[in-house]
Amino acid sequence: MNDFFARQEDARRQSVRLIVLFALAVVGVALAVYLVAAFVYLWSFKQTAAVFWHPRLFLWTSGGTLLFVWIGSFWKIRELRAGGATVAMILGARPVPPQTGDPRERRLRNVVEEMAIASGVPVPDLYLLERERGINAFAAGHGLDDAVICVTRGAVELLDRDELQGVVAHEFSHILNGDMGLNLRLLGWLNGILLVSQAGEAVLRGMRSARGRGAGAIALAAAALYVVGYVGYFFGRLIKSAVSRQREYLGDASAVQFTRNPEGLAGALKKIGGLLTGSRLDHPRAAEVSHLFFSNGIEAAWLQALDSHPPLAERIRRLEPRFDGTFPAVTPLPTPPPAEIYLKPRPAKASPEPAAALTGAAVAALLERVGEPVREHIDLARRLINELPEAVVAATRDPFGACALVYGLLLDRDPAVRSRQEEILAARESGAIANEVRRLCPAVETLAPEVRLPLLDLSLPALRALSRDQFLRLKETVALLSSADSRLSLFEFTLRYLLLRHLEPRFTQRPQRPAQIYGLRGVQQECSSVLTALARVGHREETGAQQAFARGVQLLREPKAEFSFVPAGECGVASLERAFAVLDGASPLIKRRLLAACLECLIHDGTVTVAEIELFRAIADAIGCPVPPWLDAKLPQRI
Fold this sequence. Notes:
Layout: H1 4-45, H2 55-79, H3 84-90, E1 94-95, H4 103-119, E2 125-129, E3 137-140, E4 148-152, H5 153-158, H6 161-176, H7 179-206, H8 215-259, H9 262-274, H10 312-319, H11 338-341, H12 360-368, H13 375-386, H14 390-396, H15 399-410, H16 415-428, H17 431-444, H18 452-463, H19 468-482, H20 490-507, H21 524-538, H22 542-553, H23 573-583, H24 588-602, H25 610-622
Parallel strand pairs: 2-4
Antiparallel strand pairs: 1-2, 3-4
């Protein structure tokens, strides 16, 4: 299986191919509309075939068709601009609150949280299709920051924990593989072609009682438009279904690699085959988003090529080659006991002592884990969550407590600095928030450094529930607390940057995605800034930092690309933030080379600190490459 970067690049190529195919379909529809108009013109005005080519008519009909399709696509894409939550609401789903007390919903949320921490991605918002009794699920969104996972009530009630984990892992593979954005673009583009047919259908309905001259020609044109639009939509569905089937096989394979438990995913698919309602959704708009589902959510198409998912038995045989085609009877499961809801982690393997120097193989393994979590990451994520103090876990599930938790993570251990920070809290926040921060501080101060970023990820669903005014106050307070000592530590920068990166898209207009950059020459200054910052974190001496920088740059050599060690005065927070914004638009293969260079820089002195690992994960997160938690031995923290 290709690595994360290759799959991201493949998703990009798929988008380009789809744009070309969609353009051809639109051109075909425009030509067909012209032919219909020319025929009606000849028939109405008794013209001869000699004037069948009518340039002015061609310009009006083709231009009008293209404009009509563009308006339909633009309207749908604009409707979906808010991300995955819009798709969930279209289907009538309801949010599952972080603090839900329902045992089944709690189990589902725990599975999603474990998967998110294990993947190194923000915990996505969770939705439940309450009225749907079939077994199904989907992930939707433009990217990591607006992704949602939506599950049917049937899946929650009929699947055990392993089966539910297999389904959720499948949906996380769509998040990590770049499928979500591709699926939303498909949804928007096809709507434009479908609108042509809907326009013809609307005119036909309006012409039912029409009489008089010209009524027959108009009805004929409307009927032809209806047919032409649906023919275009038919070929659009063929394209959409072919892409969807391919990505579903990839999703199954990724889920098995993630969980190392093919029985769980195969068990969920078998229950779909054995259930009377299967994976079908009853919502009237299910067909519109059918390519997003875990399994086919609508009736099987009359033509197999139009099915958005591979045959169920074929998917199961790829997981269990000896499957005989027999599906089991399905009955509701009892309410899960607490031992299953809060499943304890497997015993941790004895950790080896940290090596004096990391080998090249260890570095390669870490790079290969970008977007490629494995079972050990799930076990580690479960252990991290289970070992958190109860007060801290409760705080992550409530907007009020999550804000207090963020403030608590920023409190300095220096009494003088903390005193100034407490004054800031007293001036800007309510007394209740200040009291909650003080209550949480003893527990927060005991947390290991490697737990802090996962803790932020756990808090994001609750923080997304803030109002815009509350978010702006949180943003300003975080900035003031971070700068209370007139300097910004590495952790303060990391927390503030990731907090804003993952929350701002919810509360501010989504910026236009920059054009993708395919050559290192276009990002040489930004790469220099990132590598310099990483080198300075691991080396107090200027000479050592320069040597680490030079080692990383060796992996970025490219004709005409020049990299330079950035002076200390120019290598600050502002330059890093600018660099991240540009690098986010780089191609996946450039990102892979940059992260490889970062790791070379990181291991230059043979010692890896928690601070260096956290900065590396922040860099990867900032450019859209999620890194799972570090699996190796506990790392020594440099004083």
